[in-house]
Amino acid sequence: MANDLSTPLTGRKRPTGAGARRGFPVARVLLGVLLLGAIGVGARLLLVDDPQGGRPSREVAITSTRNGNEVASQLGQGPVTITADPQQFPAGEPVPASAPPAATPLAAPDASGMIPDLSEETAEGPIPRISATGETPFNAYKRPDNGAAAGGKPMIALVVTGLGINEQGSLEAIEQLPDTVSLGFAPYGKTLRSTVAAARAAGHEVLLEIPLEPFDFPQNDPGPQTLLTGEPTQANLDRLFWLMARFGGYAGVLNNMGARFTASGADFAPIVEELGARGLGYLDDGSSNRSLAPQLTSSNKVPFARADLLVDANPARDAILAALGSLEAKAVENGAAIGIVSALPISVSTIAEWSRELESRGVVLVPATALMK
Questions:
Q1: What sign does the CA torsion over 270, 275, 276, 281 have?
Q2: 154-371 architecture in CATH?
Q3: pLDDT at 82
Q4: Residues in contact with 239: Cβ distance below 8 Å, sequence separation at least 6, in sequence order
Q5: Quick check: 192 and 206 in contact, CB under 8 A?
Q6: Between the CA of residue 248 and those of 87, 116, 128, 243, what are the distances in Å?
Q7: Fewest Cβ atoms nearer than 10 Å: which of 171, 283, 289, 345?
Q8: How far apart are CA 170 and CA 185, in angstroms?
Q9: For the chain, which residues score pLDDT lower than 50?
Q10: Is 39 in a helix, a strand, or coil?
Q11: How far apart are CA 283 and CA 158, in angstroms?
């Protein structure tokens, strides 16, 4: 016993003989299993042709819809001829093209003279806008006579301005003037809506006069809510919306004064842009050669024309007739001419008299919108 206890552990010998136990060779067994598995996988890859790698699969018959459609099957093989039904379209007769869908008619004007689809409510009241279908107030409210009936003859358009302030005088002018004369209404009359309604009922097209700053403002003041240079754009737009809401049914606007304002691109451009966005036309009274209206209306696709002559600069019958004669000569020379006339009783009566013999001289009286491009 003493010898066993004193013998170093590292030098102890394992017992031998029949009584000794042997351990199980686990490592050798695991190595043999791995080798057998590797040999099996390699043999399958070499001997079995299976691109799916042993994954389960099923074959399903697929019927092509292209083969079931004779017309579709011919696509890509050359042109296809489709023959019309001989009973519906007899031989020798052309197949009619399908008619475009009919446009939805606009509703009738309301009490303010505006068509609801062409009206936008604002804090100042309803103002014109383009409808959801693309119809513009210019096209909806202009007089249908577009000048085509002139047949190539010289055309004259007259615009009588300053209506609406004096109700009785305005109604008398509406009654006396030919319905092809366009009427410009100032935005200040107390009975504007009823007077404008009477004008439209008589067949006249209507324009709204907007006051614009002249060079000698405020000594020469066109009226309340005048659009001014140097003001914030929104301030001028607010004034414009106020003016637009005075009445409805107008095809465009006409400047009242404005030599300074129309020469200022920074101030005038946003106003013309707004007119274009609302589908309105613009008529320049021709009083200022510095007006930027031709350029601005063109870039904003605003129907535009410029007047050639102020007919009653001298408000006397003979002077008015002489000016009308000059307007006729200009129309013959250029094919068309536009005159601006004040709503003075002498001017209205002289125009009514002159217009009766106009066609006999080979000149046709047309509304102003017929000459607005």
A1: negative
A2: Alpha-Beta Barrel (3.20)
A3: 43
A4: 225, 226, 227
A5: no
A6: 53, 10, 8, 11
A7: 289
A8: 9
A9: 1-2, 5, 9-13, 18-20, 60-86, 88-89, 95, 98-101
A10: helix
A11: 12
Q: Is the peptide bond before 100 cis (omega within 30 degrees of 0)?
A: no
For helices 317-334 and 345-355, the axis angle rounded to 10 degrees is 50
Residue given tokens 């806008």 in the structure block: 129
Helix (H, G, I), strand (E, B) or coil at 337: strand
Q: Which structure tokens are listed for 219?
A: 């000594």
At residue 89, the pLDDT reads 44
Q: Which of 106, 102, 103, 104 is nearest to 117 (CA)?
A: 106
- The domain limits of the chain are 154-371
What is the number of residues in the chain?
373
What are the C-alpha distances in Å from 326 to residues 92, 339, 360?
Answer: 59, 10, 17
Other residues' Cβ atoms within 10 Å of the Cβ of residue 118: 25
Q: Which residues contact 142 (CB under 8 A, 6 or more apart)?
A: 205, 251, 281, 367, 369
Q: SS3 for 40-107, per residue? A: HHHHHHHHCCCCCCCCCCCCCCCCCCCCCCHHHHHCCCCCCCCCCCCCCCCCCCCCCCCCCCCCCCCC
* Closest to 133 in 3D by CA, of 121, 122, 119, 117: 117
The tokens of 68 are what? Answer: 């079931």
Torsion of CA 214, 216, 219, 222, to 10 degrees: -10
Q: What is the DSSP pairing of strand 125-128 with strand 119-122? A: antiparallel
Q: For tokens 């804090």, what's the residue?
A: 123
Contact 281, 244 (CB under 8 A): no
The pLDDT score that the predictor gives to residue 49 is 60
- 3-state SS, residue 230: coil
Q: For residue 367, what are the CA distances in angstroms to 122, 155, 182? A: 30, 9, 6
Rg (CA), the chain: 45
